[in-house]
Amino acid sequence: MPNQFQAYQINKTEAGQTCELKQLDDTDLMDGDVTVKVEYSTLNYKDGLALTGKSSVVRTFPLTPGVDFAGTVISSEHANFSTGDRVVLNGFGVGEVHSGGYAQKARVNGDWLIQLPDGLNTRQAMAIGTAGYTSMLCVIALENHGIRPDDGDILVTGAAGGVGSVAVAIMNKLGYRVVATTGRMEEKDYLSRLGAADVLERADFAAKAKPLYKELWAGAIDVAGGNTLANVLSQIKYGGAVAACGLAESIELPTSVAPFILRGITLYGVDSVRVSLDKRVHAWGRLAQDLDLKLLEDLSFELDFADLPRAAEDILAGRIRGRAIIRIPD
Is the dihedral of CA 149, 154, 156, 159 positive or negative? Predict the structure, then answer.
């Protein structure tokens, strides 16, 4: 590859944050022991915040955003990687304090990378992306809790988004009966194709939660926080669990200890940024095994690299359905 490459770069000025598509060279790459030709990235909610500057996601300037990417190793000084290896990266502050996936090249710490599992190519890896990888971590949390398909329905909130779409598809393939919530009921057919047995209005979970409600769900995956999560907790069956991985509605949790004490439920916080290597490898291996790749194609679409700033506004406004793949130009 030539020394020069294209990359989005976020900078901070007295007037505020700027984001421009620039021509950089290898001297602009950050420290690391593995250099990767980035082939695909994706658009996550956090990327939308970073690109628009609507939240202080980016904390180092200048910086290339993009919290995940998949590509091929160009050069490596790390014992686990060689030139030509196909790799995937999620988290570890990439796209926040270390330049990320919205560039033709990235240089990172090899400890942050994993080998792409057999059965997935780099495009499919970013159709999954951090959102899908987080979904798998949530599924594993519920499985490890002991929840099985015959225990009852699983609720997935924000199901038309990236995390929710993949979660519905995985849980359905594993044999669970999945109920989805969404604020976009026009997506009901889409969610049914992914495997949702029923689709509920997000508004049904918007009011202030009662300490306890009728026991409805064996488990749940929540991306919302706020009143939605509080209502979900009040509806979990005795001994059940919720895997919470997002705060799209609110960082607050206006609830009581009643569901935890009187029904013995568990709330798992699911982080995808600093997960151990073993857990990352396991989650990606499960994705290659337990996600229907034909369905993955149905829930994903490609965005042009030049359209990222506009798409960032769309994902924050809830106008993105499923998984947005960013093909990085050669």
Answer: positive
Token duo for residue 109:
């710490």
User: What domains can you pick out in the chain, each with its CATH number?
Assistant: 4-116+299-327 (3.90.180.10), 129-269 (3.40.50.720)
User: What is the rounded distance in angstroms from the CA atom of residue 199 to the CA atom of residue 281?
Assistant: 32
For 20-62, write each residue's pLDDT tens digit: 999 999 999 999 999 999 999 999 888 999 999 888 889 999 9
CA angle, residues 198, 300, 1, in degrees to nearest 5: 160
Alpha carbon of residue 314 to chain centroid = 16
Model pTM score: 0.92
C-alpha 267/C-alpha 138 separation (Å) is 11
**Residue 163: is its pLDDT beyond 80?**
yes
What single-letter amino acid sits at 130? Answer: T
Cβ distance 180 to 198 under 8 Å? yes
On the 0-12 / 13-18 / 19+ scale of CB atoms within 10 A, 232 is: buried
Six-digit token string for 173? 């393939």
